[in-house]
Amino acid sequence: MAQSIFRGVLVPALTPFKKNLEPDTDAFLTHCQWLLQQGAAGLAVFGTTSEGNSLVAEERMNLLEALIAGDISPARLMPGTGTCALPETVRLTKHAVSRGCAGVLMLPPFYYKAVNDNALFASYSEVIQRVGHSDLRIYLYHIPPVAQVPISLTLIGRLLKHYPDVVVGLKDSSGDWNHTEAVLREYPTLATFCGSEIFLLDTLRHGGSGSITATANVNTKNICAVFEHWKKPNVDQRQAQITAVRRILEGYAPIPALKSIVAEFYESPEWKTTRPPLNALSTEEEKSLMGALGRFGFSMANQ
Amino acid sequence: MAQSIFRGVLVPALTPFKKNLEPDTDAFLTHCQWLLQQGAAGLAVFGTTSEGNSLVAEERMNLLEALIAGDISPARLMPGTGTCALPETVRLTKHAVSRGCAGVLMLPPFYYKAVNDNALFASYSEVIQRVGHSDLRIYLYHIPPVAQVPISLTLIGRLLKHYPDVVVGLKDSSGDWNHTEAVLREYPTLATFCGSEIFLLDTLRHGGSGSITATANVNTKNICAVFEHWKKPNVDQRQAQITAVRRILEGYAPIPALKSIVAEFYESPEWKTTRPPLNALSTEEEKSLMGALGRFGFSMANQ
Fold first, then answer.
1. pLDDT tier, A90 (very low <50, low <70, confident <90, very high otherwise)
2. Is residue A39 less than 8 Å (CB to CB) from chain B?
């Protein structure tokens, strides 16, 4: 079955852990269902915000199975499958495709730094050939601040030329609007998503497809509303709201901060648990964050 | 059985791949045996030079089993076991300890950057507690140019205080002698290894234990000779030779360059195979490297 291309707001869903640091499958399913009910176009599970690289392959596959068993359509799923080791990337990608996922979000292998475009082209190429499935749809994951291995404009061009039916999109988490704009200008057929909703309107106005953003774990409806109303006159005001919430969050360690907000929403302190090497906000940081959000008038419950 | 602490020259043994990119177990065993015959004190398999993070857990464990089945004593083995995902690090470490390996070389989790010492302490702490074996000996792997997640002096101190019988050593691949000197000064009981043989004599003269160095895959005997003769009058001349060979190699992508040299030595072009995202030297680069080594008079076969 041909896969349709994602458009709109996708959420790199947070992964809840129990106190023993095992993934909490039930809480994960509940949160993913809530995100879709709020209007998310899809779920980019196992991304950076999801602590995806802190999970082993079996954990990612089990969680994916649990979402599908919980009646989340794989047409809404874009799991992260890019790892340091080619066989693991192939395994996770094959699994996602076999379960009907509409796409995968693929990091380049990120252990070695300063690798060249030939090497990264070879990496993606090997994965595509080894997966060998006509339903495979790859969204490239450009996140140089974390992966430290960028996906250059030249590399995008080579991949699009060789695999035009497979490489269909990109998440740009560079945090650099000039870079996003260059991608949108040079590759207008690519489904490009900004990694921060601060650039959502700009992305859409330049022909982009939407945003895949951490903050959509908590400010879901408001971010989705910017996408829905992006051609309407009052949209800049909506953009200002989501930008302001993002700016508040940027004052804190992003994943622990989001987990604190979600923990309060579900009234489940266990939701604050992170896997090492991340650690939860301190009580002071949490108080400061909640205070700032309260003064701004943000609430996850009332959007 | 109490593990003895490593001292001398350890080799992060290169991992050979077949043309289909599977590890070549036989060629790996042959090379590891050769390295020990040349005088290496041990093998730090699955390090950076070994493309360790390009291997999945099963591949690392199978290769380790093959070495032991091939009569390499686990007392000579220090496999790399640090990954991004806590359960994988625990699994690999448990396996290594259960097979009697005298130590493990443990990277910090390296996907997230700018994590703090508390988080890294929690990471190592969880691994140590979950492995829960009195034979566990950890050598911390500080390689900020690649991992981008340093192991600070403060973190070393905390780990030594809490786990004095477990955290016994460190490989310093910072490339910064001032840092190595600071570690040696502050933690004289730690078995500290420089990551480049350029600092071998300096490391030994400041109370360090030796070197764990990529170049020992090819210049094994000469590097071991500096360790053996380090108190003798002619040793600076020996150090000059190994430094010069290292300097030549530093002009090329290190892992592919070493694989080219080893491929020539074993008369096996397949040895040049790397896993993406690394790629082999071009014919021109290889010619240039071999020319430079030849002019210097270096040969892997005649040391």
1. very high
2. no
User: Å from B118 to nearest chain A CA?
Assistant: 8
Which of A275, A281, A282, A285 is most worth mutating to test chain B (most B CB atoms within 10 A of its CB)?
A: A275
- Whether B48 sits among the annotated catalytic residues: the reply is yes
Cα angle A236, A242, A247 (rounded to 5 degrees) comes to 120
pLDDT confidence of residue B240: 98
Q: Are A278 and B108 a contacting pair at CB < 8 A?
A: no
CA angle B299, B302, B303 (to 5 degrees): 90
β-sheet with A104-106: strand ranges across: A42-43, A8-11, A210-212, A191-194, A167-172, A138-142, A104-106
For residue A116, list chain B residues with Cβ-Cβ distance below 8 A: 279
Of A86, A116, A49, residue with least CA distance to A259: A49
Residue B8's DSSP bridge partners are: B210
Question: For residues B107 and B123, what is the distance between their CA atoms, to the nearest angstrom?
Answer: 10
Q: Which A residues 257-276 touch B at CB under 8 Å? A: 275-276
CB contact under 8 A, B54 and A88: no
| CATH class of this structure's domain B8-296 | alpha beta
On whether any CB of chain A is under 8 Å from the CB of B244, the answer is: no
DSSP A121: H
Which run of H or of E encompasses B264?
helix B254-265
Peptide bond into A256 cis (omega under 30): no
pLDDT score of B1 more than 80: no
User: What mean pLDDT comes out for the span A182-210?
Assistant: 98
- What pTM did the predictor assign? 0.97
- CB-CB under 8 Å, A149 with B119: no
Q: Which of B19, B60, B112, B113 to mutate to test the interface with A (most CBs of A within 10 A)?
A: B112
Torsion from C-alpha of B59, B60, B61, B67, nearest 10 degrees: 110
Assigned token pair, B59: 């591949």
Pairing of strands B104-106, B138-142: parallel
**Whole-angstrom distance, CA of residue B87 vs CA of residue A60:** 12
Query: What single-letter DSSP state applies at residue B19?
Result: T
Sign of CA dihedral B170, B208, B75, B300: positive
Considering only CB atoms, A277 lies closest to which of B56, B108, B276, namely B108
Structure tokens belonging to residue A117: 């475009």
Give Cα separations from A55 to A23, A269, B30, B148, B268 (angstroms).
9, 21, 34, 20, 38
Contacts of A147 in chain B (CB under 8 A): 111
Query: Which candidate from A84, A119, A276 shows the least CB-CB separation from B122?
Result: A276
Assign a CATH topology to domain A8-220: TIM Barrel (3.20.20)
Pairing of strands A167-172, A8-11: unpaired
The pLDDT tens digits for B177-232 are: 999 999 999 999 999 999 999 999 999 999 999 999 999 999 999 999 999 999 99
pLDDT in tens, B253-285: 999 999 999 999 999 999 999 999 999 999 999
Residue B220 tokens, joined:
């094994």
> In which element (H, E) is residue A97 found?
helix A86-98
**Separation of alpha carbons A18 and A27, rounded Å:** 9
Which listed residue (B15, B89, B124, B171) is catalytic? B171
